[in-house]
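Quarterly update from the structural biology core.
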Amino acid sequence: MLTAPDIPARPQTVSSARPAAGGTRTSVATAGLARTSAAAQSAGTARSRDRFVDVLRVSAIVLVVVQHWLMPALSYDDGVLVAGNALATPGAWVVTWVSQVMPLVFFAGGAAALYSLGRRRRHPHSAGGREDGTERQPHWLADRLRRLALPVIPLIAVWLPLPHLLLALGMPAQPVDLASRLAGRLLWFLALYVLVTALTPVLARLHRRFGGAELLPMATTAVVVDTLRFGAFDGAEPIGYLNILAVWATVYQLGIAYAAGSLGRLRGRRALTVSAVGLAVAAIAVALGPYPASMIGMPGEPVSNMNPPTAVLLAITAFQLGLALACRPVIEAWAANRPVARGIDYLSGRLMTIYVWHMPALVLVAGVAVVGRGWATPELLSEDWRSAMPIWLATLTVVLSVFVRVFGRIESRPGRATGAGSWRVRASSVSIGLGLLALTINGFAPSMATHPAGPVGAALAIALGVALLRTSRRVLGITPPPRSQLTGSPDGAEEGKVEA
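Predicted structure, tokenized:
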């Protein structure tokens, strides 16, 4: 049976019984016992969480947000908004070897997924599961899909009408179209995350059977795809898109291996050695191979390490993860501080909202400052840039905080166990994934409004996926137990967090 090693079982919630007539003492005693249990449960949650995974995921998402806010080189003239990339500056590629942290996001996601799946198997009777846990996987996946899809719904509700409203108010078409596409472009992450989440039970079984040996053929697949992409024949470039799954599923599987305890010996000098080897392999691949130096896509570059991803990102994964594991004791000690832990818990419950809304925040601020006021972003690292960027980042942070305050309630509200049938969950994952993919490709561009893969079609696909999950609960007649009985923790505070 799949378990989550090194994560202790949580104390069970003691539910208060209804007092008998005249049973005031019993009622008081029961209430006191419930409060004591809740306190113990909270303490147990703090001890059982994998703070290392928490910190990696939160830090990585924050760094992604900051990088996306600093990258655009924006100017506006005669109705045309020009958006370049500040990291295209000569020598700035070095920064991307550290700032390209999507490997850490997928690693932490794989670890959190195994922790979460293990929790559900330790509660086999919750929401209709069998003793052996064989019916838990559809219910687990349904809950994960819900947590991924719901934060996108407010984004759709805002951006479906917004471009048409802006055009009606007289805004130039080009900046509106650019902003509308940009608002959906980064949803590629959620589309891919739906896929690897759906594959989690299979990947967990692979690791249970092979104990980490499965990572070698998975990584080799990415190398083979690159070999075919760059050297097989003319026109083979589309083959590279197979690495969207091959590369990121390998990194995700590393997270599963970590949560299963297979990376326990990778610490200290061993971890630093892995980091050094990963850095060396990446440097050699860039120096001798067809790979560009930047780990993010650059305008005008014939090859991107991100779209589609290349195998060199696996070397960057080894470099970054080795460093992180070497620093794990320091990270865990820092995260054990109560103020830090509270901050991490708060952000962990809103990470998808932060990710989904950080680009709309950029669109809003850039629309006012660049399009409305005629301001242009200064040259990277110039004196004007150093003076302007603190104000730029502070303004964006305030705007994003407002968005998170308004829309984060959807992500952070108490979840409900889902008694979904397996076919409904599979259909939901396909529908949600296709909807997110369509938004990634076409965004909310007004010119695509009537296209089947346009924003309206994508919104309907995502809505259908969510509706399948909700309908399945009613069809099966399952009354979900309180979330605390499923997780043993306050809402949104789960061991090995991260939910999305």
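Residues 383-412 form the longest helix (30 residues).
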